[in-house]
Amino acid sequence: LSVEETHQGLLHANGYTKKTDPVFIQSFEVGNLKDLHRRTRLRLAQLLNDTGRPYDFAAAGDPRTYADLATPAGLKEIKRYADGVGVNKNLILPRDAQNRLLRPTSLIPDDHRAGLVVHAWTLRNENFNLPADFRAGELAHPAFPALRGRVEAEYELLYRLGVDGVFSDNPDTAVGARTALLWAL
User: Fold this and answer.
1) CA–CA dist 8, 72 (Å, integer)
2) Of the candidates 154, 150, 156, 158, which has an alpha carbon nearest to the alpha carbon of residue 182?
């Protein structure tokens, strides 16, 4: 059995069989998601990185990249086999050469127009992982990269832009930021 068949079998054996179940099967490749689309009703998510291309595309000589899949036409294609996308947060919030935020892309509204949910990944608390706009502390301090930045501002920005969910190394921070934003509305 393939990894996908084993994974699907375990989920189905444990009662996870419907779109309404709290499960997403996700992959950076395309072919395995298309195969799973034919074999399960569970929700599927195409993962998109901010560089490179799916391994199965590279192996087959397909020149398309993740950037191609993140276009409105690519998202329309993804909708044929998946329910959502999990995207590198840089595809939503690009940065300049000084690591400062640029204008958000249209990826979230494009995803929603295609009928897909969108989850951003991976949010982390440390300055090293944040745009310069949300870093905190003294840059000259030796521990600066590991210090906690103003990560709640990044969460709030993504939530306000309409992201449907996030991948986080700090789920307590993600939930706290979402709760604070809901209370502020």
Assistant:
1) 29
2) 156
Q: What is the pLDDT of residues 71-109, one digit of tens each?
A: 999 999 999 999 999 999 999 999 999 999 999 999 999
Tell me the pLDDT of the chain averaged across its residues. Answer: 95
Rg for the chain, CA atoms, rounded: 18
DSSP 166: E
Per-position DSSP letters for 38-87, written without gaps between them? HH--SEEEEEE-SSS--HHHHHHT----HHHHTSHHHHHHHHTT-SEEEE
Backbone CA torsion sign across 131, 169, 64, 34:
negative
- Asked whether the whole model's pTM tops 0.85, one would answer yes
User: In this structure, what are the phi and psi dihedrals at residue 156, rounded to the nearest 5 degrees?
Assistant: -60, -45
Token pair of 104, please? 């958000």
- Give the ranges where the chain is alpha helix by DSSP (H): 3-13, 31-39, 55-60, 66-69, 72-79, 107-113, 151-161, 171-184
Q: For residue 184, which phi and psi values (nearest 5 degrees)?
A: -80, -20
- Whether 52 has a pLDDT exceeding 90, the answer reads yes
Q: Is residue 85 within 8 Å of 116, Cβ to Cβ? A: yes
Give residue 2's pLDDT band: very low, low, confident or very high (50, 70, 90): confident
